[in-house]
Amino acid sequence: MTPSTTVRRSHLWRWRRSPLRRREDVLEAWILLAVWLVTAVAGPVAGVLSARATVDSLARQRAERRPATAVLVREAPRGFVSGEVAIDHVITTVRWTAADGTSHTGRTRVNAGLKAGERVAVWMDREDRLTTEPQTPGQADIVATFMGAAAFLGVATAAAAGFYAARVVLDRRRSRAWEAEWRKQGSRWGRASN
User: Fold this and answer.
1) Where are the transmembrane segments (predicted)?
2) Whether pLDDT at 174 is above 90
């Protein structure tokens, strides 16, 4: 028998008939098989569904948000350096006119150092409220890829954690069974020596 044959057979010992095999061993093998199936089937499905939902959500944001022009109410503070990071955007108050002609003010992120009265590009939602710029389709694809991968890893991690928990319980049951067998055998050995 070659070493590779020995290795392959040792991984499958729970599936073969053996006087040393216990119910817990068979149950562990079935649980492990279920974990692999869940990871192989549910993991990719969760990843695809999560990626698709992310793409749809970001596309909906792009459709609902629109660019607009606002005027700075007060001067934007100058940029500064914090550690090794240059801060070149600040939050300040702007005023804009909504589609219905009403005037609104709000706070948004603008380039540092702009003067009061300057025009800046802002993004509005359906209710003419300030919002962030939507992600481009390329950025949305990257985010969707990460969300899909995270969903797959979440399913795989949950399945592995479930297997680990089941194995801890099964190991405790095996340990109790082995102790009972040793006590039983010990009492037989003790009688034989008397």
Assistant:
1) 26-49, 142-166
2) no
